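This week, work through this protein record:
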Amino acid sequence: MTINDLEIEDYHDITNALKDGPSVPANVSFQMHWSGVQKRVHLHDEKKKFDAHLIEDTATIGWSARRKDFRFVSDPAHTSTTVFAAIGSERNGVFFS
């Protein structure tokens, strides 16, 4: 999956973002690659109202962000090392039933 120049608001830090404080316009780009299904997992807990169907996988990502006065570029995606990656769907809480 590739996303190029997605417009976002840069809040500088998580505290400012949670308070919807001042922000500046920014753009981000991502290059993500998922491959090599390792295991399919079904998690179900009736008591905690949780159900998930997941695929444990290998994933790599490269990304960049820029705003008027700053730019960050990660190392290329092919240099990533997967520690854990999963993709899937889940239902919980009021959406459980």
User: Anything to note?
Assistant: The two ends are 31 Å apart (CA to CA).
